[in-house]
Amino acid sequence: MKEEYLDILSEKGEPTGVSRTYSDVHEEGLIHRAVHVWLVNPQKCILLQKRAAEKEAYPNYWDISASGHVSAGQTSIEGAQMETKEELGLSLPASAFLYFATFGEQIILNNNTYINKEFQDIYIVRMNVKLSDMHFDHEVSELKWVEFEKFKLMSKDEKSMLVPHAEEYDQLIRYIENL
After folding, report:
1. What tens digit of pLDDT does each residue of 32-80 get?
2. Contact by Cβ (8 Å): 99, 123
3. Domain with 45 in it: what CATH number?
4. How many domains does the chain fold into?
């Protein structure tokens, strides 16, 4: 399998013109871009995915509806569309994605063998879709819609097995409260 290449960014999130392999990026802690896509239905439920047991970062944790790295040469919105297609089986036009925010994250996992320094572009997709209409890939083991009030509780409970994105959850909650 051919390894994915990622564009390397400066400390300010600007392209450097250099691309490196996924492995190099995470071994050396190089800055790159990722996307997070939140699906929110008209009842204000939030789609969560359960990460597969084989994932390097946070296996078996509940996570963002769809997320992943922006491949070399892709725009952020193209990355969001790709991850939504790969992880949920949904082909959506760029116009379905509402840009929400960008967060920086730096974490070191797996006994210092996985260094993640990234800018995460956050998108919200407001749509009503049944679980049976989605088809997830090998990176996802389960999908579920979570009622808004339950998600608020999960986001504050360290035992909820929710990937830690506290600032992002807080801003998402504020956004949904104002819908």
Report:
1. 999 999 999 999 999 999 999 999 889 999 999 999 999 999 999 999 9
2. yes
3. 3.90.79.10
4. 1
Give per-residue pLDDT as tens, 151-173.
Answer: 999 999 989 999 999 999 999 99
Quickly list DSSP for 90-140: ----GGG-EEEEEEEEEEEETTTTEEEEEEEEEEEEE----GGG----TTE
**Backbone torsions φ then ψ of 44, nearest 5 degrees:** 70, 20
**Residue 160 carries which side chain, given as an amino acid letter?**
S
Q: Are 56 and 109 in contact (CB under 8 A)?
A: yes
Q: Which helix (H) or strand (E) holds 169?
A: helix 166-177
Q: Which residue has the tokens 């491949």?
A: 71
Torsion of CA 45, 134, 124, 174, to 10 degrees: 20
Q: Which tokens in the block code for residue 55?
A: 């994932």
Structure tokens that stand for 58 in this block: 């946070």
Domain limits for position 98: 5-177
Q: Which pTM was predicted?
A: 0.94
Label the pairing between strands 98-109 and 15-21.
Answer: unpaired
Identify the helix (H) or strand (E) that includes residue 122.
strand 114-126
Contact, 111 vs 66, CB < 8 A? Answer: no
> CA geometry: angle at 170 spanning 84 and 165, to 5°?
55
Residue for token pair 């097995």: 161
